[in-house]
Amino acid sequence: MSVRDTALPTPDADALAHSGRLRAAIRAEIQAQGPIPFSRFMELALYAPGLGYYSAGSTKFGAEGDFITAPELGEVFARCVADALAPVLRDCGPAADLVELGGGSGAFAEAALKRFAELGVVPARYRILEPSADLRQRQHARLHAALPAALAARVEWLDGPPGEPWSGALFANEVVDALPTPRFTLRDGQVLEEHVALDEAGGFSTVDLPADAMLERAVRHAERTLGEPFADGYRSELLPQLPYWIQAVAGPLERGALLFVDYGYPRREYYLPERDRGTLVAHYRHRAHGDPFHLPGLQDLTAFVDFTALVEAGHFAGFDFSGYCSQASFLFGNGLQQRLDEIAAIGDDVERHRRHAEVKRLTLPGEMGERFQAMGFARGVDFDRAFDLGDLSDRL
Question: Fewest CB atoms within 10 A around its CB: which of 68, 131, 160, 251?
Answer without folding.
Answer: 160
